[in-house]
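User: I'm putting together notes for a lab meeting next week and I want to include a structural view of one of the chains we've been expressing. I don't have a solved structure, so I'd like a prediction I can at least talk through. The sequence is below, exactly as it appears in our construct file.
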Amino acid sequence: MKKLLELYISFFKIGALTFGGGLAMLPMLKRELVDTQGWVTEEEILDMYAIGQCTPGIIAVNTATYVGYRQAGFVGGVFATFGMISPSLIIICLIASILQNFLHIPAVLHALAGIRIVVCALMLQTVVTMTRKGIHDRFGVFLFLAAFILACFSPVPTAVIIILSAIAGIIAKKVGRRKAS
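Assistant: Thanks for the context. Below is the predicted structure for the 181-residue chain, given as structure tokens.
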């Protein structure tokens, strides 16, 4: 029961203290799951994020379900998932009932704009950290730049870019092994 409570509280904190969706949650997920709890490694976070991009659903919820399941089975997955979504449900209900009354106030508009800027900065910091961990050679740099250009400047869906990158990585690894033999 202690592990279930830890899962719920950890994911409740992540869900409650993070604005901006899945990408914005990455720094908080890394800090809580890797640094604080030690439930997963940085490489596993990268893998979960990549898989989360390709699977239906919200990245943070998929991650919560996966980590919860790994830590405490099916019930752990349920507790972690519920911990992740509980703050959103509470906050959305509260905001929906009162925000309309305050949107005309400049301070509220500025606060929301400030939150967006901080979320962007946190996302950039996470990208830089994860890039350092994920790129190991020239091919990695090439693949990163190609994926970045496709994601930013083409209508190709993110899931397709991830799948193509995975295929390219597999092919590169096999070609590298053949050259080494």
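A couple of points you could mention at the meeting. Residues 14 and 28 are 6 Å apart (CA to CA). The chain has two domains: 2-130, 135-181.

User: Perfect, that's what I needed.
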